Amino acid sequence: MINNSKQRYLTTVLCFVMACVTAAPLAAQKKPAEAEAPEMTEQTEKAIARGLKFLISSQNKDGSWSSKDGAKGGGYAIAGTSLGLMAFMVEGHFPGFGPYGKALDRAKDYLLKRSKDSPTGAMGVKMYEIGLYTIAMSELWGMTSDPEDNKEIQVALERVVQIILRSQSPLGGWRYAPRPDSGQDTSVTAMVFVSLASAREAGVLVPAETIERVTGYLRDQAFDEQRGGFGYQGKGYTIACTAGGVYAAQLAGNRDTEWVSAAIDTLENDPKMFSRKDNGHFYYSHYYAMQAMVQAGEDHYANWYPKIRDSLITLQQPNGSWQENEKDYPHKTPMSIIILGTPNRYIPVYQR
Question: What pLDDT is recorded for position 12?
Answer without folding.
Answer: 37
